[in-house]
Design goal:
Number of helices: 2
Oligomer: single chain
Distance between the termini: 25 Å
Helix content: 25-40%
Largest sheet: 5 strands, mixed
Number of strands: 5
Radius of gyration: 13 Å
Protein backbone atom coordinates (compact mmCIF):
# COMPACT_ATOMS: atom_id res chain seq x y z
CA UNK A 1 0.00 0.00 0.00
CA UNK A 2 1.49 3.39 -0.99
CA UNK A 3 2.22 5.97 1.68
CA UNK A 4 1.31 9.65 1.51
CA UNK A 5 2.13 12.99 3.05
CA UNK A 6 0.74 16.47 2.43
CA UNK A 7 2.52 19.78 2.27
CA UNK A 8 0.98 22.62 4.32
CA UNK A 9 -0.08 24.37 1.10
CA UNK A 10 -2.06 21.27 0.03
CA UNK A 11 -3.84 21.16 3.39
CA UNK A 12 -4.74 24.85 3.12
CA UNK A 13 -5.97 24.38 -0.47
CA UNK A 14 -8.04 21.35 0.59
CA UNK A 15 -9.95 23.46 3.12
CA UNK A 16 -11.00 25.81 0.31
CA UNK A 17 -12.71 23.01 -1.64
CA UNK A 18 -16.39 22.33 -1.21
CA UNK A 19 -17.40 19.12 0.59
CA UNK A 20 -18.52 17.69 -2.77
CA UNK A 21 -15.11 18.46 -4.31
CA UNK A 22 -13.30 16.82 -1.39
CA UNK A 23 -15.48 13.71 -1.73
CA UNK A 24 -14.81 13.56 -5.47
CA UNK A 25 -11.05 13.88 -4.98
CA UNK A 26 -11.05 11.19 -2.28
CA UNK A 27 -13.10 8.82 -4.47
CA UNK A 28 -10.75 9.27 -7.45
CA UNK A 29 -7.69 8.72 -5.26
CA UNK A 30 -9.06 5.60 -3.56
CA UNK A 31 -10.78 4.03 -6.58
CA UNK A 32 -8.25 4.79 -9.32
CA UNK A 33 -5.05 6.59 -8.27
CA UNK A 34 -3.97 4.22 -5.47
CA UNK A 35 -4.64 1.00 -7.42
CA UNK A 36 -2.84 2.39 -10.48
CA UNK A 37 0.04 3.75 -8.40
CA UNK A 38 0.55 0.32 -6.88
CA UNK A 39 0.57 -1.21 -10.36
CA UNK A 40 3.00 1.49 -11.58
CA UNK A 41 0.82 2.30 -14.60
CA UNK A 42 -1.92 4.93 -14.67
CA UNK A 43 -5.15 4.53 -16.61
CA UNK A 44 -5.73 7.08 -19.36
CA UNK A 45 -8.80 8.55 -17.68
CA UNK A 46 -6.75 9.86 -14.74
CA UNK A 47 -4.79 12.21 -16.99
CA UNK A 48 -1.53 12.07 -15.08
CA UNK A 49 1.16 14.21 -16.64
CA UNK A 50 4.31 16.03 -15.67
CA UNK A 51 4.16 19.73 -14.86
CA UNK A 52 6.43 21.47 -17.37
CA UNK A 53 7.61 24.26 -15.07
CA UNK A 54 8.39 21.91 -12.17
CA UNK A 55 10.46 18.82 -13.01
CA UNK A 56 9.51 15.82 -10.88
CA UNK A 57 6.04 17.22 -10.13
CA UNK A 58 2.95 15.60 -11.62
CA UNK A 59 -0.61 16.75 -12.18
CA UNK A 60 -3.67 14.59 -11.51
CA UNK A 61 -6.97 15.69 -13.06
CA UNK A 62 -9.69 14.55 -10.65
CA UNK A 63 -12.62 16.57 -12.09
CA UNK A 64 -13.34 18.83 -15.07
CA UNK A 65 -11.53 21.73 -13.40
CA UNK A 66 -10.11 19.77 -10.46
CA UNK A 67 -6.34 19.40 -10.30
CA UNK A 68 -3.89 18.13 -7.73
CA UNK A 69 -0.12 18.22 -7.96
CA UNK A 70 2.12 15.63 -6.39
CA UNK A 71 5.62 14.21 -6.44
CA UNK A 72 7.26 10.94 -5.53
CA UNK A 73 9.08 10.98 -2.22
CA UNK A 74 11.54 8.59 -0.63
CA UNK A 75 9.94 5.20 0.01
CA UNK A 76 8.81 4.71 3.60
CA UNK A 77 7.99 1.03 3.06
CA UNK A 78 10.32 -0.94 0.83
CA UNK A 79 8.91 -1.41 -2.66
CA UNK A 80 5.91 0.87 -2.07
CA UNK A 81 5.67 4.34 -3.63
CA UNK A 82 5.47 7.40 -1.37
CA UNK A 83 3.44 10.37 -2.66
CA UNK A 84 3.81 13.96 -1.52
CA UNK A 85 0.63 15.94 -2.24
CA UNK A 86 1.62 19.53 -3.08
CA UNK A 87 -1.43 21.53 -4.26
CA UNK A 88 -5.13 20.94 -4.95
CA UNK A 89 -7.81 23.10 -6.52
CA UNK A 90 -8.72 24.32 -9.97
CA UNK A 91 -6.44 24.74 -12.97
CA UNK A 92 -5.03 27.95 -11.42
CA UNK A 93 -2.85 25.95 -9.02
CA UNK A 94 -0.55 25.09 -11.92
CA UNK A 95 0.86 28.62 -11.81
CA UNK A 96 2.59 27.59 -8.54
CA UNK A 97 2.54 23.77 -8.43
Amino acid sequence: MPTFETLPRFTADLHHLTPAQRRRFRRVVLDAFVPDLSGRQFRTGLRIKGVRCAPGVYELTWAGDGRATWAYGTERIGGEPHVIWRRIGTHHILSAP
